[in-house]
Amino acid sequence: MNGDKSTLSVIVAGGGTAGHIEPALAVADAIKSIDENAVVTALGTARGLETTLVPDRGYPLELIPPVPLPRKPTLDLLRLPGRVRASVRRTREVLDATGADVIVGFGGYVALPAYLAAGPGLLRRRRRIPIVVHEANASAGIANKIGARRAARVLAAVAGSGVAARGRSDAEILGIPVRASITGLDRAALRAEARAHFGLPADGPVLLVFGGSQGARSLNEAVSGAAESLAAAGVAVLHAHGPKNTLDVPEVPGGPPYVAVPYLSRMDLAYSAADAVICRSGAMTVAEVSAVGLPAVYVPLPHGNGEQELNARPVVAAGGGMIVADGDLSAGFVAKTVIPLLRDPAQLEEMGRRAAGAGHRSAAAEVARIVLDVAALTRGTR
Predict the structure, then answer these.
(1) How many domains would you assign to the chain?
(2) Residue 81 — φ and ψ, nearest 5°?
(3) Which domain holds residue 66?
(4) Is 19 annotated as a binding residue?
(5) Which residue positions in the chain have pLDDT lower than 70?
(6) What gap in Å lies between CA 262 and CA 245, rounded to an integer?
(7) Is 137 annotated as a binding residue?
(8) Residue 179 annotated as binding?
(9) Are 281 and 139 in contact (CB under 8 A)?
């Protein structure tokens, strides 16, 4: 806890999924690089990925009760007010104990209690803590829509996200904060090391395939189904299929390897080894793949509100990738569309350049400066 008020205290609220946690930690890193004395505390819940990711990055984690918002009218909806009160009460305890100067929220069920707890209490006088809201997705969630109403600054990855406040037509567009190990990646310099790390050939095209932390069945089936065609074309594959899945990949004597792994812990090396990617189009995935300048075939999740397709559209419009519907991804598509791309170095280079141009490498630093500016302004008025 932060008892020294000569130091700045920042709360980052972005627990639950990697799509919320990674931008929060990227901003935390950027804040520390600007002000090494700043104290950054993460909010999270006991059931989120933050219980592993946050301590691994060296930040204190304070747990609060989760407030999942029911998508349908069920008995859970009746329990929601009590859950909100309990979570806000616990969050206020954290804010008081840390002497929080500013909250930066990234949406999700950890951010909502933080936004609500930032205001003055009903039964006692307490200071209002300024909020900075960042929306990573092309379509804003409920938590950030609520937070934007009382935020000092509202930021977003892309235009039209639906996060607006105080008469602004939309948020300030900065992109998604991505960790420095990705934004500063020199793929060409790491290429040989990366390929050796995964047992891939030093020369020839490499296709990277991943479907998020749990994998994706449609990606797994389509690409593994094209294994013989890929090998015949001289294309090696690095495929993260998910820890609960397996791949049945036929061996092709004399062909380049098809390296199948449950999970990729070194995404920097995976990106460096690859020439193109087949992946989902979650906001964080699109941000990282475009930031490192990799051509991509984005396969949006077939369910939900179409948000994943919206995430990929700006990069595709810039010429840095293509979108294929989940139902249209097949072994035949890989053979007819992806293999010719991988065998065309000039096209790969041009698409990579356009992808990098659509990315936002400086987003974490820009968000960090805004957070520090908001905190400094508030501290100066006390």
Answers:
(1) 2
(2) -60, -40
(3) 9-178+362-380
(4) yes
(5) 1-5, 68-80, 121-126, 164-170, 213-215, 379-382
(6) 7
(7) yes
(8) yes
(9) no
